[in-house]
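Think of the structure tokens as a kind of shorthand, similar to the way a musician reads notation: each symbol stands for something richer, in this case the local conformation of the backbone. In the example below we present two proteins back to back. Begin with the first one, reading the sequence and then the tokens, and try to describe in your own words what changes along the chain.
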Amino acid sequence: MQKCCHHELRIQFRALLASQATFSTASVFDPLSARIAADLGYEAGILGGSVASLQILGAPDIALITLNEFAEQATRIGRVARLPIIADADHGYGNALNAMRTVVELERAGVAALTLEDTLLPAQFGRRPFELISVDEGTGKVRAAREARGDSAMAIIARTHASAQSLSHVIERTRAYQAAGADALCLIGVKDFEQLASITDGLRIPVMLVTYGNESLRDDPRLAELGVRIIVDGHSAYFAAVQATYESLRKQRGIALSGSRGASELVASYTMPGEYNTWANEYLRLAE
């Protein structure tokens, strides 16, 4: 059985945040993928909430996964990890008190860092998809997360959605989360370098940027100058695994296809989004 020191991996991640360079994460979803990422020289891995939902539930990313389910998968990965693992902890699975419990469980699982987002989750019926909680509630979660951790080396990363609000509001939130003691900020939905520069101007803590293939943000030296230390460029490894599984089983079964089916199409098909939409229309209307 491989032995690892979670505290040392957290120290390694802190060194990445304190550096002057930008590092790309590997999307990991099980122990084997974590070992592969470390062997290939990645400095950090990330267990995405959407990927965990697919891997554990076969369900779309609509906040169905529970803390225990997510922590169990993080524990399996943390048991063998030889690189720092970032856990996408969504909204902390509830309010600030739930976020404290989330920190305790994920610290025990061995993650080096976790992100807490300010999206209003689970999504409310009839509301816009990226509605955010108040700044006060968001800062409360950050402060609660800091209080709950036993190892101060574990990084608390506050996440906000740049395209879901005006630039002035993004700046207000990031400064508030910085003041609340976040170790880093995670930005999603940034459209270009001009917007990124406006947000990061004056920040004293490093940035984790979720680009999801945005070509206009592919310039690592420039990102580094703006304080971006960690880049998450999607979860293509997991989707490639889904497609490879489908193709292998299809060929083994001797089923011919007239055309190829992409990973996104396969995921959309097998997560049964139609059923969830039907249930949402049937039952969530009561919450209006």
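Once you have a description of the first chain, move to the second and do the same.
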Amino acid sequence: MKIISHRGAAGLAPENTLLGIKIALRYQVEYIEVDAQRTKDNRLVLVHDDTFHTKSGKEVKVKDATLAEIRKSGSSQHKIATLEEALKTADKIPLLIDCKGDGWQDPLAKTLEGFNGPKPIVASIDSRQLFAFSQKRSEADCFLSELTKPFDALQTAKALGFSGLCLHYPIYNPLLYFLAKRAGLKMTMYTVNRPISAWFLHFFYPEVLITTDFPDRFAPKVKKQRFKKKKKSK
């Protein structure tokens, strides 16, 4: 079973934080998923909702605030992270970047332009923006997300040349799985937190990557390499 750790490791740490990513790295996961949104000054930050509350209680849209303004509103313990920081923290484990909101295509293309680490998956529920991004970064793995209409998503992904699908796990079915495989599309499902459910789904859909808030329930810990000190020859 191949695992994607959801929103960093949302069941083990505050979601979409660098701490969550660091915890996910303790386990043998295929990807670490994070949510990304564009700020007013064209930075990509790890935030799921399209609004946040300032310390005074005012609700502000992420796209209408700068990175500095958003960070002022956050916890001093876990500052709002940028995508650049997330990529650096994840190191050799690729990210699955779930892009939210509008206008993220150019900032994301620019961020990945100089990135030399493992190739991330770029996912979005917005096929129009995802296609626009795929034209800027033709080598990128682009996955179309969908909550309710899997066959529509399948047809759109095929038509627009996307690499795969990110689907809510209850909408999977054997026919969809067969058609997606035949089309050469990779598949992920979200969000599965019960081990019995994960193993059941893996039995029927063995090639689908399973996204979970609790990587510790499904993925073994990474074995620490032990380096023996060489004895100095006399």
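Compare your description with these statements about the second chain. DSSP finds eight helices and eleven strands in the chain.
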